[in-house]
Write a structure and sequence with these properties.
With about 110 residues, the chain is mainly alpha-helical. It has helices at about 15-20, 40-100. The termini are far apart.
């Protein structure tokens, strides 16, 4: 069996400007002998959670905006297609009125 050397590219999403201006949350150095204060760890975890939730709220709002734009585009396309169908129907009616009547089919006697 042969091995495949596949790789993936990770695409970073742009961060909202409101988060860019906020002070970055830095990891606090912990010595091997020191035990971190649980309250301090909790505060840091909650801060990171708040940042993640803010990013997620922004992403969901952007996604909803994109869905709204898509909905508008699809509705516009539907209106355009209905208008085009009406034009084709009108053209068909005009052509039908201008065509001479079909001759009667020939009947052969044996």
């Amino acid at each position: 069996m042969s091995e495949s050397n596949a790789s993936a590219t990770i695409i970073q999403f742009p961060r909202p400007a409101s988060l860019e201006s906020a002070a970055p949350v830095e990891a606090e150095p912990v010595s091997a002998q020191a035990v971190p204060d649980p309250a301090q760890r909790l505060r840091r975890a909650l801060t990171l959670l708040d940042v993640a939730l803010a990013e997620q709220r922004t992403a969901v709002a952007d996604w909803r905006g994109a869905l709204s734009e898509l909905n508008t585009s699809v509705q516009d396309l539907g209106r355009s297609l209905r208008s085009y169908q009406k034009s084709l129907d009108t053209l068909q009616d005009q052509i039908t009125l201008q065509l001479p009547p079909s001759p009667a089919p020939c009947q052969f006697q044996a």
